[in-house]
Design a protein that fits this description.
The complex is a heterodimer of chains A (914) and B (287).
Chain A (H helix, E strand, L loop, with lengths): L8 H68 L2 H24 L4 H30 L3 H10 L1 H80 L15 H32 L6 H15 L4 E8 L6 E8 L10 E3 L3 H9 L3 E4 L8 E2 L4 E2 L3 E9 L2 E10 L5 H131 L7 H31 L8 E4 L2 H17 L2 E6 L6 E4 L1 H17 L5 E8 L2 H7 L8 E8 L21 H7 L5 H11 L3 E7 L3 E9 L3 H7 L39 E5 L3 H12 L4 E5 L2 H10 L5 E5 L7 H10 L8 E6 L3 H10 L3 E5 L3 H12 L6
Parallel strand pairs in A: 10-12, 16-17, 16-18, 18-19, 19-20
Antiparallel strand pairs in A: 1-2, 1-8, 2-3, 4-7, 5-6, 7-8, 9-11, 12-13, 13-15, 14-15
Chain B lengths: L1 H9 L2 H25 L8 H15 L4 H10 L3 H9 L10 H15 L5 E6 L5 H12 L6 E7 L2 H9 L1 E3 H13 L10 E3 L3 E4 L1 H4 L2 E5 L11 E6 L8 H14 E9 L7 H4 L2 E5 L4 E4 L1
Parallel strand pairs in B: 1-2, 1-7, 2-6, 7-8
Antiparallel strand pairs in B: 3-5, 4-5, 8-10, 9-10
The chains are: A alpha/beta (914), B alpha/beta (287).
InterPro entries (chain A): CHASE3, CheY-like_superfamily, GAF, GAF-like_dom_sf, HAMP_dom, HATPase_C_sf, HATPase_dom, His_kinase_dom
Family (chain A): In the N-terminal section; belongs to the phytochrome family.
Subcellular location (chain A): Cell membrane
Chain lengths: 914, 287
């Protein structure tokens, strides 16, 4: 009962004091009572003894006065003298009675008193009264006898004696009384001290109990608090108090504080854990994964999803980027619009949603053994600077506690920052790596510059030393320059003449090339697209047709190139570059080139140099090589079994005289290409050198080729001052013999007029011309990310090409805008600025590509837009004009799409360092 | 200009002591690297090395050059990092296009008479120059009989050179250079691309050999018709420049060509042994 009862400190102290006061009161009452009884006793004792004393004195007085009065009377005989006697006689009796009553307790004194009484009575009876009688009768004789007998004297003496003894007794008794009082008095003193001691002890006990019960509790509280403080904030400890007082209240309050601190601390720790978890994560998905993995166990969630806000404006969506303990991909939607569902609503309202006691939920929490329906669902936003960056959803089989909610509220803020940081960091890292690269390059450039400046200084000194020498030379040079200038003027005039004269032919060639290639271009591109059959809409067979169309187109293209070659040679548009050719090298080069062909066809390939050939030959090595390549290709083409042989020897002078009368004096090389192929009938041997002639129609079909190769060979041979002869028998094989003389530069000039070189690519017979032939380099891919959403302006007048190109570009998700001519192009670029790239055909009606590029480049806003010129392949002059007009790069038609895409990747990539 | 300024700074009392100590520290570092790895930077131009050293220190938060040496000796991989830092990696395709144009016009005709041509790109870094040369020779019909050697002291960049792929973000500049250098074909026909790199055609790569070679310590390894060492010697001090020139001279075939950077000139000691083939273009021909 008492334990249960609540006693506060005030009552404890009050009770203590009350107890002490009670003890004091009791002791005072006891002492007072004792003192009072003592006092009374002293009083009684004093009054009684005094009375006894007085009574004894009065009896004694009466006895003595009676005796003296009797004597007086006896002498005088006057009655007046007898008064005291009678008075005494009457009164002593009363005194005796009182005394006898008083001392009734004291038998000794009583006996004495009786003795005295008897003595007095005896005196009265024997002495007093008879003597008085005697006097009254005047009996003198009796009186004399009386006196003589002196009987009275003796009795009076006895009386006196008795009185003395009585008084002594009485004094003795008084003394005894006083002694008794003294003893009691001492007792009282002692008991006073004892009582003091008892009260003191009681008071001490109470004080120690009360103070103990207060101080100990406080000490325990203090100790616990100190422990908590010293244990580095271990907040799990609690203060235990057994008492039920204010300390208990204090302890309870402190415990509450601790509990709330612990919660706070827990939240802080978890927030910190989540915050530290972010460190080192540089990628949003990883961050989201880590966040879920961290937070879900903390809030006892068994399932979690992470949605991040993507896009802007009305296109904002919340996209799931991470999940926790997800059932399968099906669980949880992958995305929400703003305001859609709880997730979207949460993002819009910027407030969390907590759903408890879900009735039936689609989502189950799945373990190996069980499928549990979550009880509670929590959706909360993660904000940064007042903007919802992400939304997280948790499901739990239990309910979320307020502690969890509080924690999430805190985490939300921190994590918003972290999220933003990571997103920022991803951006920053990207920028940083770019800028680092820039810095490195800059630094390297700076270094070079610095070193260069040092070098310059050195050079400056050197220059100063040689400047005098230079001054002399300068005079000489000036004179030379004047001479040169005049020579140059002459040359310029001459070359201008030449240029004009060749202008018409060159224009014709260019136009021809362009006109033929333009339709071919669309055929090639579209047939390639078809044959790739990316949509899978064509049957295999149809795709095969498309591939055949593509191959045929390529053949056609090769044909056009050959025609162009031929016409150029015939128009004298080819310049010779005369240099020294190492003769012994020729077979080796050819062997290198054709060995693989020979091996694949199972043919023997023999290359020989017969002794006695001149080691060096002055001629155009490249053309020579081209002739031989053509001849050998031909030989291999028409030979099914046996061998192909290349023989190099010094030409027989007679033969030379006959075939090349002009070069009879110099070295002439004879190079024979012999095969064991089908051979050529005699009547057709002359025909095969003419353009487009093969042995018969079938040959063409069977062996392919344009039939222009030999024509070109013969033209080249002529160009080199040589000739080609043929001996052949049907079924046995053919031998083509090339005679090449050693020629000097002047001779070469005579042979080929120095026209502006119109052909660049023509000179490389093996240059692959077509897309399909071009092998994909390892590592290149069809990655289209660079193209996605790029804006390209295609300027092209030919509808077929436009169609083909647009289709091909749009397949790469490029945004294509088409302009039919230069004017339209300029208009579109003005109206819709911001094109990433311009593909510009050169030949167009109204305003051609060159003029258009010129205009574009003069516009400061457009001068950096990459422009790719689409040129006719062979026209090197065209290319130069394109570059002058401001093209960034060029590509020739028909377009090789793979090459075009490579080129576009280059020009669509943001550049550094320049 | 900036050199003068630095000198002025070094003029005052404590700065002088400081720069003395720094010189000593750099000296010890280079000796240490040489002893530990065999890479000899002791004769590299100090001003350029110093900048590289300080750049590395700044990156790694180091206060003294000596702590760099300590890391180099104790931390695995750090030595390679330093060697990589110190090697020169600045290069581009058809760098200084006029050089290539002149090479095409003036040197290629001379090369035609050789049955086999060997070209050495000394200090080729990531190989851009070698690829440029291969393209040029391809267009001139000489590539088939040419063997190109690209060497650099830095194994890492040599490896990267072998790959023959260059970042797309430099390719526009390369295209411009190619066109200015008088390219006769279409630059885009030599490469294909992915989203990050331009990958050069295997036919271009086929005749190029990349290898590790150190101009400071290694000897000649063949006889060449052309040696190109452009913008490399500027990073060397006079001693190493002389050594390199000696090495080049010994490695050149008679009448072979040597090309230097547009800010470099032939060492005085060798001037007489060469004919200045293209006076302003820094192309010399061995007499």
């Amino acid at each position: 009962m008492l334990r249960e009862m609540r006693i506060n400190i005030r009552s404890k102290i009050a009770i203590g004091y009350l107890l002490i006061i009670c003890c004091l009161g009791v002791s005072i009452v006891v002492v007072t009572e004792r003192i009072a009884s003592l006092q009374e006793e002293i009083g009684t004792l004093t009054s009684r003894d005094i009375e006894i004393h007085n009574l004894i004195a009065s009896i004694r007085y009466h006895a003595i006065s009676m005796e003296s009065s009797q004597r007086g009377y006896l002498i005088t005989g006057s009655d007046a003298d007898l008064v005291p006697y009678t008075d005494g006689k009457a009164k002593w009796e009363a005194g005796y009675n009182s005394l006898s009553q008083l001392i009734s307790q004291q038998p000794g004194m009583k006996n004495e008193l009786e003795e005295i009484k008897l003595t007095i009575e005896k005196w009265i009876d024997e002495v007093g009264d008879p003597a008085i009688e005697l006097r009254k009768r005047n009996d003198s004789a009796g009186m004399i006898r009386f006196f003589t007998e002196e009987s009275g004297r003796t009795s009076l003496d006895a009386l006196k004696e008795r009185f003395g003894s009585l008084t002594n007794r009485q004094i003795e008794s008084t003394r005894l009384h006083i002694l008794g009082l003294d003893n009691r008095n001492r007792l009282l003193t002692v008991s006073l001290y004892v009582m003091l001691a008892v009260v003191a002890a009681v008071a001490f006990l109470i004080v120690s109990f009360v103070s103990g019960s207060i101080v100990n509790t406080i000490k325990r509280v203090v100790k616990t608090i100190a422990e908590i403080a010293s244990a580095g904030g271990d907040l799990t400890a609690r203060i235990e108090v057994r008492t039920k007082d204010e300390i208990k209240d204090l302890a309870d309050a402190t415990n509450q504080l601790l509990a709330s601190l612990e919660t706070e601390n827990w939240i802080k720790t978890k927030v910190a854990e989540v915050a530290t978890m972010n460190q080192g994560i540089t990628e949003l998905n990883a961050l989201a994964e880590a966040f879920l993995a961290k937070v879900a166990p903390i809030v006892d969630a068994a399932h979690g999803l992470f949605y991040i806000r993507e896009g802007s404006g009305s296109g904002q969506r919340l996209v799931r980027i991470a999940s926790y303990a997800s059932d399968s991909d099906a669980s949880g939607r992958s995305g929400f619009r703003m305001g859609e569902g709880l997730i979207g609503q949460c993002a819009q309202d910027k407030r969390p949603f907590l759903l408890n006691k879900l009735p039936e939920h689609d989502v189950k929490i799945v373990s190996g053994l069980a499928r549990v329906t979550p009880q509670s669902l929590l959706v909360f936003p993660i904000e940064f600077e007042g903007k919802v960056e992400a939304v997280v959803e948790f499901a739990s089989v239990t309910s979320f506690s307020t502690q969890h909610l509080k924690l999430l509220e805190q985490i939300e803020d921190h994590f918003g920052v972290a999220l933003n940081n990571v997103a920022g960091r991803m951006e920053v890292e990207r920028l940083l790596s770019e800028s680092r690269q820039l810095t490195e390059e800059l630094q390297a450039q700076t270094e070079e510059l610095q070193t260069q400046s040092e070098e310059l200084q050195l050079q400056q000194e050197e220059m100063r030393i040689t400047s005098e020498h230079l001054a002399e030379q300068k005079k000489f040079a000036e004179r030379k320059t004047r001479e040169l200038e005049s020579a140059q003027k002459e040359l310029e005039a001459y070359s201008e003449e030449l240029r004009k004269s060749s202008q018409y032919k060159s224009n014709f060639l260019a136009n021809m090339s362009h006109e033929l290639r333009t339709p071919l271009n669309s055929i090639l591109i579209l047939s390639q697209l078809l044959s790739e059959n990316e949509n899978g809409t064509l049957s295999e067979e149809e795709a095969g047709y498309a591939a055949i169309i593509h191959t045929s187109g390529n053949d056609l293209l090769a044909l056009i190139d050959d025609i162009l070659d031929l016409s150029k040679v015939e128009a004298g548009k080819i310049t010779l570059t005369i240099d020294e050719v190492n003769v012994s090298e020729i077979p080796e080069q050819m062997k290198l080139r054709f060995d693989s062909v020979a091996n694949s066809k199972g043919l023997a390939f023999d290359c020989r140099v017969i002794d006695g050939v001149p080691p060096l030959l002055h001629t155009d090595g490249q053309r020579l090589q081209q002739i031989l390549t053509n001849l050998l290709s031909n030989a291999f083409k028409f030979t099914e079994r046996g061998s192909v042989a290349l023989t190099v020897r010094s030409a027989d002078p007679h033969k030379v005289q006959e075939a090349l009368p002009l070069h009879a004096s110099g070295d002439v090389l004879e190079i024979a290409v012999t095969d064991t192929g089908i051979g050529i009938p005699e009547q057709k041997q002359e025909l095969i050198f003419e353009a487009f002639r093969q042995v018969d129609g079938n040959t063409n079909r069977q062996y392919g080729g344009t039939g222009l190769g030999l024509s070109i060979c013969r033209e080249f041979a002529k160009l080199l001052g040589g000739t080609i002869e043929l001996t052949s028998r049907v079924g046995e094989g053919s031998t083509f013999t090339l005679y090449v003389p050693s020629i000097s530069g002047e001779q070469a000039e005579r042979l080929a007029s120095a026209y502006e070189e119109a052909a660049a690519a023509v000179m490389m017979p093996e240059t692959p011309h077509v897309a399909a032939d071009r092998p994909q380099t390892e590592g290149a891919d069809k990655d289209d990310r660079l193209f996605k959403g790029k804006r390209v302006l295609l300027v092209e007048d030919d509808d077929r090409n436009v169609y083909a190109l647009v289709r091909a570009l749009e397949q790469k998700a490029i945004e294509v805008k088409v302009a039919g001519n230069g004017k339209e192009c300029l208009r579109i670029m003005k109206e819709e600025p911001g094109f990433d790239l311009v593909l510009m055909d050169v030949m167009m009606p109204v305003m051609d590509g060159l003029e258009t590029m010129g205009v574009i480049r003069r516009d400061p806003a457009l001068k950096d837009t990459p422009i790719i010129a689409l040129t006719a392949k062979a026209m090197k002059s065209d290319r130069e004009k394109c570059l002058e007009a401001g093209a960034s790069d060029y590509i020739s038609k028909p377009l090789n799409m793979e090459q075009l895409f490579s080129l576009m990747r280059v020009w669509l990539t943001k550049q550094v360092g320049h | 200009m900036s050199v003068e300024r630095e000198d002025k700074h070094a003029g005052s009392g404590t700065n002088a002591a400081q720069s003395e100590r720094e010189k000593l520290e750099i000296h010890l570092l280079l000796e240490g690297i040489y002893s530990a790895s065999g890479f000899d930077f002791r004769n590299y131009a100090r001003s350029s090395l110093r900048r590289r050293i300080y750049h590395r220190m700044q990156l790694d938060g180091l206060l003294t050059v000596t702590s760099l040496l300590e890391k180099a000796l104790h931390e695995p991989g750090y030595l390679d990092l330093l060697v990589n830092d110190f090697s020169i990696k600045v290069t581009e395709m058809f760098r200084d296009p006029s050089f290539f144009r002149l090479f095409r016009q003036r040197v290629v005709p001379e090369l035609r008479r050789y049955p086999e041509i060997r070209i050495w790109h000394a200090g080729c870094a990531t190989g851009e120059e070698a690829y440029s040369m291969a393209i040029l020779l391809q267009e001139e019909g000489l590539l088939e009989r040419t063997k190109l050697y690209g060497t650099d002291m830095n194994e890492q960049v040599v490896r990267s050179a072998r790959e023959g792929r260059f970042p797309l973000k430099r390719m526009q500049a390369y295209t411009k250079n190619y066109l200015q250098a008088g390219g006769a074909g279409e630059f885009s026909s030599y490469y294909s691309t992915n989203h990050e790199y331009a990958l050069f055609d295997p036919s271009i790569k086929a005749n190029i050999t990349f290898a590790q070679h150190n101009l400071a310590t290694d000897r000649s390894f063949n006889e060449f018709h052309v040696i190109l060492c452009r913008n490399v010697l500027i990073y060397f001090d006079a001693v190493l420049q002389r050594r390199s020139h000696g090495l080049f001279y010994d490695s050149l075939a008679p009448e072979g060509f040597i090309g230097l950077g547009h800010m470099e000139t032939m060492a005085a000691a060798y001037k007489a042994k060469y004919e200045e083939w293209i006076p302003p273009g820094h192309l010399y021909r061995k007499k």
